[in-house]
Design brief:
This protein is mostly beta strands and 258 residues long. It has four helices and 15 strands. It has three domains: 7-155, Pnp Oxidase, Chain A, CATH 2.30.110.10; 163-205, Rubrerythrin, domain 2; 210-258, Single Sheet (Rubrerythrin, domain 2). The strands form four sheets. It has a seven-stranded antiparallel β-sheet with strand order 2-1-5-8-9-4-3. It has a three-stranded antiparallel β-sheet with strand order 11-10-12, with no helix packed on it. The chain has a three-stranded antiparallel β-sheet with strand order 14-13-15, with no helix packed on it. A hairpin with a 2-residue loop joins strand 1 (14-20) and strand 2 (23-29). 27% of the residues are buried.
Length: 258
C-alpha cells in the first residue's frame, strides 16, 4: 500500500480552542467536518494526549477558527509546536476575540469561526471523536480557506541549506554551549554571550566535519523520521508502529524517513 494516498484527501486546517478552570488553550487540527446539515452538526477528532482534548471533554464545548491562506507559519508554530501543558498559549497573544460562548477565536490568518456543543463522544482508542451541535458561526473575511496541501506547499518553510539562514547568511555554532552566531564572518574577538568562550570555540555549521553526515542520519548514525504534518523529527532505526507525534498528535503513518 502507498500510504501517501492518504495525503490526497483534502483537509481544512483549524485552530480549535477550549477553556477550563479559567485557562484558555488551543491546538491545530485538520479533523473538523460537517456531518449533518439538519440539525447542523460537525465532528471533531482530537488526540487524547492533547490538553485541548481534556478541556473539550470536561467543558462540553469548543470554538474552531478556520485557517485561511493569509496565515503564516507563526500561527502553526504557536498553536501546533508547543503543548498547553507546558505553556500558556494565550499569554501575550493578542490576535483573538471572544465568541458568544466565551471561548477565544483567532482574528489573524483566519476567515471564519464555528462554535459547537458536544452531544456525543466516540472512543477511537488514541483519539476521541466529538459529535457536536453548531451553536454559532461567523464569517470574518473572504480569504480562501487553507488546505493541508496548501500548508505543505505554501506555508510550511522549505528545507534550507545546511549552515545557512533562510536569507542565506552563514551560521557559526559555539561548540561549548550551542549558541549560534549569524554572519558571513565571525569576528576574531567575538565572545559567546552564553558561555563566554572565544571565537576559537566556534565552528562553521555545514563545514566538512558536518557535511560527511549522510542525509537522513544524525551524526551518531541514527535514522531520522519526520512528521509530515508539523515537522517533528524522531531518531531511531525503526519508528514504532504505535508511535504518536508528541507535537501534533498524528500517528506513525504520517511520518516519513528523511
Amino acid at each position: 500500500m502507498d500510504k501517501k494516498a492518504m495525503y490526497k484527501i483534502s483537509y481544512g486546517l483549524f485552530v480549535v480552542t477550549a477553556a477550563l478552570a479559567g485557562k484558555d488553550n488551543g491546538c491545530i487540527t485538520n479533523t473538523l467536518a460537517q456531518v449533518t446539515s439538519e440539525p447542523n452538526r460537525v465532528s471533531l477528532t482530537v488526540n487524547k494526549s492533547n490538553l485541548t482534548h481534556d478541556m473539550i471533554e470536561l467543558s462540553g464545548c469548543f470554538t474552531a477558527s478556520v485557517i485561511s491562506t493569509d496565515a503564516d507559519f507563526s500561527l502553526f508554530k504557536h498553536f501546533g509546536f508547543q503543548s498547553g501543558i507546558d505553556v500558556d498559549k494565550f499569554a501575550g497573544f493578542t490576535d483573538f476575540k471572544r465568541a458568544e460562548n466565551g471561548l477565544c477565536y483567532i482574528t489573524k490568518g483566519t476567515n471564519a469561526y464555528i462554535s459547537a456543543k458536544v452531544v456525543q463522544t466516540i472512543d477511537l482508542g488514541s483519539h476521541t471523536m466529538f459529535i457536536t451541535d453548531v451553536t454559532d458561526m461567523v464569517v470574518l473575511n473572504d480569504a480562501p480557506s487553507a488546505t493541508y496541501d496548501y500548508y505543505q506547499s505554501n506555508i510550511k518553510p522549505k528545507p534550507q541549506k545546511v549552515g545557512e539562514t533562510s536569507d542565506g547568511q552563514t551560521v557559526w555554532r559555539c561548540m561549548i554551549c550551542g549558541y549560534e552566531y549569524v554572519g558571513e564572518e565571525l569576528p576574531e574577538d567575538f565572545i559567546c554571550p552564553i558561555c563566554k568562550h572565544p571565537a576559537s570555540d566556534f565552528e562553521k555549521v555545514g563545514a566538512a566535519k558536518e557535511e560527511v553526515v549522510p542525509v537522513g542520519k544524525t551524526p551518531e548514525g541514527k535514522t531520522i523520521w519526520r512528521c509530515t504534518v508539523c515537522g517533528y523529527e524522531f531518531e531511531g532505526d525503526e519508528l514504532p508502529p504505535d508511535y504518536i507525534c508528541p507535537i501534533c498528535g498524528v500517528g506513525a503513518d504520517m511520518f516519513e524517513k528523511v
